[in-house]
Queue: 2 jobs
Job 1
Amino acid sequence: MYNVLAMTRWAPMVLLLAPAAAAQSYNITDLGTFPGGTVSQGNAINQCGQVVGYARFVNFNAHGFLWTERGGLQDLGAIPPESNFSVAQAINSRGDIAGYSTYGNLGNEYAVLWTHGRLVDLGTLAGGTLGEAMGINDESVVVGFSNSSTSQPHAFLWSEATGMVDLGTLPGGYYSQALAINRGGDIAGYSNAADNRWHAYFRRRNGEMQPLPFLPGGGNASGNAINDRGDVAGGSSSSTSSTLPVVWINGSVKDLGVLPNQGWGSAFGINNRRQVIGWSGFLAFIWSPGKGMQNLNDLIPATSGWQLQLPTGINDRGQITGQGLINGQSHAFLLTPTQ
């Protein structure tokens, strides 16, 4: 998740400065860290521009955070005691936040929901010790994965009405994760199957998991994000690469390509304008139907000092969050379009 920011060469001709200025497409905001800490990462952004993720303290422990323009970085806490670890993974337009927190014995993780200023322990599937919430929609329906007393981790769906429901796997599989859910309740994720391959899947609300196609020659894929149109963004192996960034539209897979001199990548976010973000090699990218793939490091001020590494979430305003390097430290960032 690292890259090198290309250095701008100054030319003696003033006219050459115009393209460089025009290339700036985003302002960048450093979301900072908790007191004494040096690491933070943005994991998701809602339509209001609120960002969630995690940040470390001076003792290297970490808690989930909520960042707002007025409130800055706010510690979301963890399942008591406060020394427990937590990560915020997703946020909806109401400000409800999904993630996970360690609990009890080392290695135990429970899915959690932060809502109305309190932390709700969603637990695990029956008898499980591991649960992580990965996505949430505006109905506050949560998806993620959990093990149980009888199975390895399976994708789950949680709602206040139903509690945590095991979504199973693709036929013949034993492991699955639900990574994202849209406003209509459609879900994306990945699962193994009877063919011993890992498949990206699309699950329509109240339906069954449907495997999504690989790129030609591929044998493994993951659906990492979904928009309200049902488009899924993620990664698929191919005949020439371990993983390439892709988007599935109406069930068909599209290769998004890679940045120059980069041979692999994956997509991690998609909005309703079909703008896709992810990484290519160790370079952060944005892809759109009109402009194709662009290096995000070329679209921020050349003097910012940032090296954008991992973009993780994008909203319909085109704001992007993720993690990058600034002054040798890994910090969460917010990109806001300038036009």
Note: The first strand starts at residue 26 and ends at 30.
Job 2
Amino acid sequence: MTQLNRNRLRSPCHTETTTLKIMRFYDTTPANDLTYSDVFLVPSRSDVASRLDVSLATDDGTGATIPLVSANMNSVTGPNLAATMARRGGLGVLPQDMHLQDLDAAIRWVKAQPILFDTPLELAPDATVAHALRLIPPHEGLGIVVRTAAGEYLGCVEAPALATALPHAPLGDILKGAVATIDADDVTDPRKAFDLMVAADLDFAPVTRHGVVVGTLSRKGALRSTLYTPNVDGEGRLRVAAAVGINGDVGAKAKALAAAGVDTLVLDTAHGDQETMLSAVAAVARLNLSKPLVAGNVVTASAVRDITAAGATIVKVGVGPGAMCTTRMMTAVGRPQFSAVLETAAAARELGAAVWADGGVRYPRDVALALAAGAASVMIGSWFSGTIEAPGRLETDEAGKLYKDSWGMASTKAVQDRFDRLEPYELARKTLFAEGISSSRIYLDPQRPSVEDLIDMITSGVRSSFTYAGARDLAQFRDRALIGIQSAAGYEEGKALPVGW
């Protein structure tokens, strides 16, 4: 810790203190628990000249090269989004509400996806334009590979062509003539891929090997591959996480997921500080699966000690900060997220464990603040649900704006999906006490419709936060981060004006 303000950090609700090398408060001591909008980063003297000199690699054992995790929510993380997250260095957590055989298939699918190229979106020639527009918007850099039922490649339709075609027109009728393709063997590295796209004046193209489509590539995607390091396992395959609940034969489920190739296991429940969770963690830990074991959610240091003693290596932190969560208003239970992360991360580091900050992020600044408070990664839910790669189909509202539906994991919709195999009476009993938002429209940002666009925005902001603190990596950022406390007016002052003067 540097000389400026060596005050010990004391939670207003707890008597525990820590002298670990962590962020400092700037000439103040908080009088109450804080959330992200209550605090800000104070710039420090820095010798970091560029954002590209910063490493965002996590230190939680998951192999992630950026500190972003997509939440195990049905409306957020499906196989496609999980693969995209790993391709750019993050980690996607498949939700526990998927049936075990579906989880198995999803894990194996992610592990089989290309690293350097994007997964092709494939449709039959008789699929309509309207069908295609439920999957992707008509933007540059996107497209659809058209195959017959027998697997014969017919060509591709670039997404912008969907905007002017008749909704009921079959894709086979609007195929281009000779579609340019890229030979996978010519793409020896990401820079070569980008140069090929520029030389051929292509924004989107199928990638083939011996005449077989093995992926697709956009110019922006090729550029991203030069900037991000994929999160891959020892065999060079994309990493993926999966969640399981804490009831039933948790050990058997964990073994089944491990057999499918899962890289990180997440034991998840709304109230992680309970005996059933501790028993479930211990049961999985005894299997010695040699994989990071995540458990939560909790908000106190004492819960961290219990859950790590049971065998968890990563603790998921956050009760009530999520956009789809009504826990605090329904039950009064929870804790402001910044203080929760600050206290739990300090406790976890003492025990050789790590923390994921789960929920409450609305802007890149919030991700940076969570990392400053000690999180190894930040879990994002609703923010990612309004993207092309998220599960669900694109819908259009009355004004023509694109959106996807999102819902909380304790909502009626989620409960009905989770227990759809129960008899009607038992399902009705569980549904009666559901809480949370069952349907919310999350609109696609026209400028950032892809989860990759959001990753670009978030990591750009976080990299800059590191440079302001004079930090080249996550450990230095935790040590050097200087945090101030602000009023609501101070927070509003930091927002850009939505209109001109």
Note: Residues 1-18 have pLDDT under 50 and may be disordered.
